[in-house]
Amino acid sequence: MKILMLSWEYPPRVVGGISRVVHDLSHRLIKDGHDVTVVTYRDGDVPYFENDEGVMVHRVDNFMISSNNFIDWIMQLNFNMIAKTGEIIEKEGKFDVIHAHDWLVAYAAKTLKQAYSTPMIATIHATEAGRNSGIQGETQKYINDTEWMLTYEASEVIVNSNYMKNELQRLFGLPFEKINVVPNGINLNLFNGIERDYDFRRQYAMDNEKIILFMGRLVYEKGIQHLIAAMPKILENYHDAKLIVAGKGGMIDELRNQVNYLGLGNKVYFTGYLSSKNVQRMYKCADISVFPSTYEPFGIVTLEAMLAGTPVVVSDIGGLNEIVDHRVNGMKSYAGNPNSLADSILTLLFDHKLCDEMVKNAKTKVKNEYNWNKIAQDTHFTYQKAICETMAERQAKQNAQEAAEKAKKKTGELSNLLSFKKRQAFA
Questions:
Q1: C-alpha–C-alpha distance, residues 10 and 5, integer Å
Q2: What is the CATH number of domain 2-181?
């Protein structure tokens, strides 16, 4: 197949989880013999075109005209994506399918679908209502409505968990059979050749301290505030522990103030942004990884920690709840409950045998269920469904047009016959 991926982020631009999903899925599809073209936003000094190991990546600027707000900025980006894709199609021919990732590319996807009569598949990675616990303002309502429009226009919709499938049915009233659950995956070679680096570890904690690691964006729905609130109870029972917060985000000042208020200045360390290599090192240095989200459609970071061999603690919400089986391949805690978080973390700090068993089970589950081979095959099957549906719709339209033309012709013939008989009767 010739596949077009539309995404507002692609490495080296990484805003959230979409970037890694589009990158890894595209490379797996290439290995399966497909042609993949990605049209995305150009951030920084990266090239406008790049052959990324077989994936043809075209990047576009936004307009030089300053936008009034984020919504206008996204709309301008969509215009440029349409223009760039039109150039590609003119040179190389049409695509078999368009795969749109989230509302940020919805208008480009819809326009290209209609202009070139190409089946369009949409992956909804998260919803605006889910991120914000409902829709409060006009901007959120606009994004929510755009998400609905994208799912309506798509022949098939992909989500990464059953939790998200239920959410889309509830929010948008989508038919059950239109929503395909295809989990995100992980590169199983991600930690090959990477061992614990003690010199790197000593930059963040002493050798006697157990590292409790949070990895992710510092935003409300990731629940880091609840993990910080759990630290006093953890330290009261296990003195040699330290929380490492790796990532950046809009809550950084609020979280620093929370740490200072609780008197945890020497027990919580904010690393800021980490390069991909240092992210790998950090997972290997951690003793426990904690992901206390209050909203999480999937949770790729959990797969990373499990593959790295780090025991995980997650909240019992969304995709995390589906990835982790309590006390089998990880620990669960009640979402938004610092006391429950502390209990699960303390269990792992004291029970080394349980940790070893869960780490072993976690690696097995990741390798069996979240490898890109299987995920790419499931995605390809969804593409085939969309193509078949589009062909069936075209055939149905053609049949309807032919039937209408026949009916029109028959009506004309009857009209002529009646007119002839009237003339005869008059004569």
A1: 10
A2: 3.40.50.2000
**Cα angle 5-8-11, degrees, rounded to a multiple of 5:** 85
Q: pLDDT per residue over 386-413, tens digit each? A: 999 887 777 777 777 777 777 777 776 6
| Contact yes or no for 20/367 (Cβ under 8 A) | no
The pTM assigned to this predicted structure is 0.82
Give the separation between CA 179 and CA 159, rounded to whole angstroms.
7
Q: Residue ranges of the domains in the chain?
A: 2-181, 198-369
Picking from 38-47, 195-204, 340-349, 403-412, which range would have the lowest pLDDT averaged per residue? Answer: 403-412
Report the distance separating Cα 371 and Cα 299, nearest Å.
15
Contact 112, 152 (CB under 8 A): no
Q: What's the chain's average pLDDT?
A: 92
pLDDT band at 58 (very low <50, low <70, confident <90, very high): very high
Task: Determine the 3-state secondary structure of 154 from DSSP.
Answer: coil
CA–CA separation, 246 and 269 (whole Å)? 8
Cβ–Cβ < 8 Å for 128, 146:
no
Could you give the maximum distance between any two Cα atoms of the chain, in Å?
115
CATH architecture of 198-369: 3-Layer(aba) Sandwich (3.40)
Nearest Cα residue to 56 out of 113, 3, 116, 1: 3
Task: Map residue 2 onto helix, strand or coil.
Answer: strand
The residues, ordered by sequence, that sit 6+ positions from 226 with a Cβ below 8 Å of its Cβ are 292, 294, 336, 337, 338, 341
Extract the runs of DSSP E, i.e. beta strands, from 43-155.
49-52, 55-60, 97-101, 120-123
DSSP code for 330: B
**In what helix (H) or strand (E) does residue 56 lie, and over which residues does it extend?**
strand 55-60
